[in-house]
Fold these 2 entries.
Entry 1:
Amino acid sequence: MIAPAETLRLLDGPRPADGPESLQSHLARLGPRPSHSGGAFIDVVDRAGLRGRGGAGFPTATKWAATRDRSRGNAIVVANGAETEPMSAKDRALMTTRPHLVLDGLLLAAEAVAAKRAVVYISRAHDDAAAAVTAAIDERRAARDLPVPVTLARAPHRYVAGEESAAIAHLNGGAARPTMVPPRPFERGVDGRPTVVNNVETLAHAALIARHGPEVYQRLGADGATGTVLVTMASAVHSAGVHELPGGSTVAEAISAAGGATASVAAVLVGGYFGRWVAAEDAWDLRLGIDVPLGAGVIAVFPHGRCGVTQTAALMGFLARESARQCGPCEHGLAALAGTTAELAAGRAKPRDAERLNRWIEQIAGRGACHHPDGALALLASGLRVFAGDVSTHLRRGRCDRDPSPLLPAPDWTGRRG
Amino acid sequence: MIRLRVNPIRCDGFGMCAELLPERLTLDDWGYPIVDGRPLSPELVALARRAVAACPTAALRLVDEAEPHR
């Protein structure tokens, strides 16, 4: 299949600065959304190798097939655009410039799993995305292209609100907090029905796969990381923001796409705040989604001039504040880790405290209902390793000579309504 | 394969389980149980049932699974 080059990638077409692409422009560029019967599109998505772009990287076709198996025409599909990862901007970029790719993907998913309705889940803090998606739904309604009803739901802007089971709990009228799995969403989700929750970028990719076929999609990326990928480049790069890269691009290529680093690089945080620190010299050749998990697509470049211990402590404080406080090991464990890491950053920690951090990391692992504590542990463990030199300086001398002000944001959202 | 599993959302850290079945349950620094999820021998299953029954929040249960949940 030969496709015009300007239709292959998510952000091909009108300039992002032009705002949400209209349905008319979307159709002129890409043609109508192909229809498939009997879940045939699931096999297409499987062959394309599409994996979830919300963080876990789970194969999309597997999720859809499990939901379709249980659906009696009553499944629910949810486009997850909550994007509460502090540095991530790619889901909003997509919703505010290519809302019809997201809706096409959502309607394709609805058809694939035999759903009776669909929901787009967007943070209360992201009115721009909500407005663009609402307008796009209205355009579809006017054009009589809504095979199932599509509604908008707003998520509280808290870190765990975008977690799949938290989204379902919120759509069922409860707090946006993770629940115990099983039951898994495909077993019992929104309204007790089989439910599939897909990140909005995942759905947008499905819309392109439906147009161009699995082979063209595969060739946009690499084996094991097919298609393109939206990354949010942050901190010490010249051109921070959202960039679309071939799947399997290296960290060095991602930084280069963002105009290069603005200073000598000490470390790179890959994935998001549930991701991991990698020392600069180990980071350059890592292929995103192959050698290192893509997570939520955030790549933060951290310069030598800043203190990684203080930065990691600030991020641990954020993650501890964002615990849903449902599980003891997460509530108490993350608070203890954050407190001791802050003591270390302030130069008040003893070697015994560093030993306690390592013991707690082992104790807490795998003991939350969701993966929030495990994500925080991965961040801390990688930070202690990558910034080991600074850690020992803090233990010996109190502080290091680097700039202690955090570069990566660690907002306090505890005043927001949960 | 009978295994112990704790629902960490329900668990309030009373710690009775670790007193009744120290072979498979230890407490972390905050008093919450760390569960050894390996299959239980028939002798331990009987003791595990007591621990399950003693949990004030019904957070602990026995599951029959080939593989541990995580």
Entry 2:
Amino acid sequence: MRFTKAGTFATLALFIFLTQCGRPNPGTGPISIGFGGPLTGKQANYGTMCYRGAELRLGEINANAQANGGRQYQLVRGDDQATPSQAVVVAQEFAANAQIPMVLGHFNSSCSLAAQKIYEAAGLPNLSYGSTNDDVGKGSPLTFRTPYKNSLQGKTLANYAVAHNLKRIAILAENEDYGRGLADVFKKSAGELNLTIVTEKSYNSDTTDYRPLLLGISKEKPDAILLAGFYPQLQVAAVQARAMKINAVFLAGDGVGSSLDYIKNAGTAAEGTVATGPFLIENERPLIEGFKRKFKEKYGEEPDSWAVYAYDAAGLAYTVISKVGTDRAAIHKALSDFNSKDKAFAGLVGPIWFDNDGDAVNEDVSLAIVRNGRYVVIPVR
Amino acid sequence: MASVSIVDTHLILQGAANGLTLGCLIGLLAVGYSLVYGVARLINFAHGDVFTLAGYYIFFFVMTGRSPHSVNVMVFLVATCAIAAFAWGHSLRRTSLRLVVAFGGALLGAGIATFLIGRGTTPLVLTVLAAVVLIAVAGVAFEYLVYRPLEGAPRLSYLVAAIGLSLTLQASMQLLFGSERRSFPEQLHAQLSRLPVPGFLVGYFSGLDLLIVGFTFAITIAATWLARSSKYGIAIRATADDPILATRIGIDVRAAKVQVFALGSALAGVAAFFFIARERVLEPTLGYTQGVLAFAAAVIGGIGRLTGALVGGLFIGVVLSMLPLIDIEPLKSRLPDGWSAFLPSFNLSDWGIGIVYFLLALVLVIRPRGIISEQFWRDV
């Protein structure tokens, strides 16, 4: 067989033409933003809420753009199932996709920490709308986040314990980054405030019988138990503890405190649980009322507070990309430029701006207690 | 604080009581592994997922209201009933007749499903009974679909098929029933827990716990008795002993296999009801963790023996339950300086499952036929 130069050239040209045919023109097609979060699995509830929050924001932007002739935005789903190993797979897909200039994600601290190394290697900026472990921002220069850090929750809960004379505290923590992280920062604050940690027990996400651990805890007769983990597990532990006549106060972080399902599923056992969380929905701020209405109109159910963070994260992504374009490095630079209060992005949660680690400078933690099947916001201190 | 840890009898009894209940739950599931292994010589790794499936049946039967997910349960029910009916009709010569039987099975399944799903008012006993029968039917369907075609194949093929069935079931349940964690209704749980408990046991067992323990012991004794003296039991034991010889003396080996699958699955169904009513947890991957524990129990107790499965289950239940009560700290302060560094600084409770697997490995190495001696079984 003989190749002619012209034939080879023509074939090559045809090949290039064909492979480029299906691609949207990078100048005018929709801009894709990666969304990493638990869209299925035990924590699918969180992921779905957040995805909808972000989708709602981009929907508004797209409607606006249609009127003014701007570019459309779309989310690319990356389901990490709340497991770090799956988050790495999602991150690799996003990193390899040149059409994705930026990622919103991930939700779980363990997933953000696992994925950020891959994003860093690919120069892909990522903005978490849900991770609160203290190390998430520090972990990579390309990682930013909209919520507060765990240490703020730990401090708030420890202060509550002191104010209510809860001196002996037991810890029940999930054995992963968020749970361990929250337990650690709580212990640090508790040490400073002279609270006694009487015992510390940990469980895995597939634990279903917490009675043995609770028995070990009840032995120490604590005044309060810190539930450091997520509601799908802790709703079970709460029910079992109350059935065992353990009357200690439940203190919990936002893994429990931002979920309405905790109250729904644990029922009477949830009563009296004191939890930190954003509680943006319960706080009845005027800006958020509008969001709540729009969310309910579109999806037929009430949003939770994480959806607000995701809504803001999507808004921030749009602001940056519409300004500097789809170059990953330029987006990173632009995100880093939100570095003081007067340069802050105006989100629903308030002004969002980042410190050197990429953590939102944010004191936005509220405290709520479960009364009659609802979170009632109580003053922090 | 004094370095001596005072032994709290009440606490230890509480731990033991919980261990007993937990052990019965594991044992009930372990019987299924043991039965199937004894007769079919295969480790049915999908047994845990059959347990989960039964949990979903019960969950959708007790819930009021229908959703796309409950329609999927209906599809599952109809399909398994049709396949099991098709399998049952194997003595019919003509395929067309078998298809008619299968269609009848499908209709029956659809009828039961429409009657139960989303109704929420059927008496609980009836609901559970229906779920147990239906899961036995599903067990028969899986045997026909997955293991029957492998007849005569090497054992490794069975193992691979079992793992394949397990993964397929898990994934289908995630897809069809939703992957979120479900909660068994609080009211029913409370009702069951309030069943009467004799005075001296109050504080150690709930009414439901006693029901679990009582049922497990009763069913194990009944099954052992049946295996010894009934016609079916003798056929099953003969098959377990030597399938070729059993065929020669006129025992339907295939029927014996189908019977153990049905019986094992039915027990998994009961275990599933007890489990979701007690722990109020249901998710598609539940059977994996519980199944592995039950498998360990079956091996520790001596796989292939009914009572052994219960003994193994109780052993694991008590280990898992009592570990968190052991405190290493007081021991540390008694050791001379420097030595305490050799003691672990973690909670023993964090290692519960790990310790169970370690014990399993130990049993496999030292006493591969179970912790109880052959002599003991012969004497019993």
